[in-house]
Amino acid sequence: GYALASPGAKIVTQASWYSTEACHWNPDPRCPMANGRSLYEQETTQPYFVASWDYPFGTSLELTGPTGTHIRCVVTDHGPNRKLYHAGRLLDLSKACFQALAPLSQGIVEVEITEVRP
User: Fold this and answer.
1) pLDDT recorded at residue 46
2) Which of 18, 26, 55, 117 is the 20 to 30 A CA-CA neighbour of 35?
3) Residue 98: helix, strand or coil by DSSP?
4) CA distance 28 to 25
5) Peptide bond before residue 66 is cis, with ω within 30 degrees of 0
6) Longest dimension (CA), the chain
7) CA–CA gap between residue 78 and residue 52 (Å, rounded)
8) In whole angstroms, what is the distance from residue 95 CA to residue 20 CA?
9) pLDDT at 59 (0 to 100)
């Protein structure tokens, strides 16, 4: 993947957001994420999460937005959809993560990704 190809490098990408609004397309009423956890539960108990194909579940990422705001989010899902990923969008942010960086109405925000090492 893109992000893991160059450890230690600053990775800048565009990110979109997703939330339980997407659950109406999921036939399972729990709306499970790739990690098996319910998206409804995830938003309630740990709202700062991201979807990534490049980082394993549980990886902590620091995201820096265009205004210099830093937030920490945890990888709990796979995403974004493959077409957007191959176009260079590396993350889908939870609604809470996105709102900490930009208004939801913006739809897409540029972020710098830094993996937080334990």
Assistant:
1) 92
2) 117
3) helix
4) 9
5) no
6) 40
7) 5
8) 9
9) 93
